């Protein structure tokens, strides 16, 4: 087993404090599914290792002993910081999820509202076209053409009624 230098343990403890403060200040930078299990209890936190940050894995008792030795605020400070980081990360992700659900609800509501407006405008356009066709219809003398136009007007009216019935359901 490799012996750990005291200086490495001390640097690791200060790196842990930096990491915890960064999680508290910038929770969006950290993945909930990775960091919450690390922060959930003292043991998991003491066993966490991150070579990039200079954090080494040590047993909980060793962690507490050297934290009390190197920090004037003792282990209780580091543990409170761990709990605060855990709660911040957990609350941040929950509020992000709530915001996402709220945003989806607003977006769906906006889509429905716009669809109703668009449907209303289309019906309005169809009625105007129907009125124009009826006006032209009155000037036509060819009976076959009049019958065709009349059939189309009836189809349009049927479609409008069908659309309005579906909208009211």
Write the layout of secondary structure elements.
Elements lengths: L5 H20 L6 H8 L2 H6 L12 H11 L3 H66 L3 H26 L1
Helix pairs in contact: 1-5, 2-5, 5-6
- Largest sheet, described in full? none
The share of residues in extended strands comes to under 5%
**What share of the residues lie within helices?**
over 70%
Number of helices: 6
Any idea how many domains? 2
Q: Segments where pLDDT lies below 50 for 5+ residues?
A: none
Question: How many beta-strand runs?
Answer: 0
User: How large, in whole angstroms, is the Cα Rg?
Assistant: 35 Å
Element order: H for helix, E for strand: HHHHHH
Distance, first to last CA? 73 Å
> What is the mean pLDDT?
85
Instruction: Characterize the overall form.
Output: rod-shaped
Oligomer: single chain
Output the structural class. Answer: mainly alpha
Describe the structure.
The protein is mainly α and 169 residues long. Helices cover 81% and strands 0% of the residues. The protein is rod-shaped, with a radius of gyration of 35 Å.
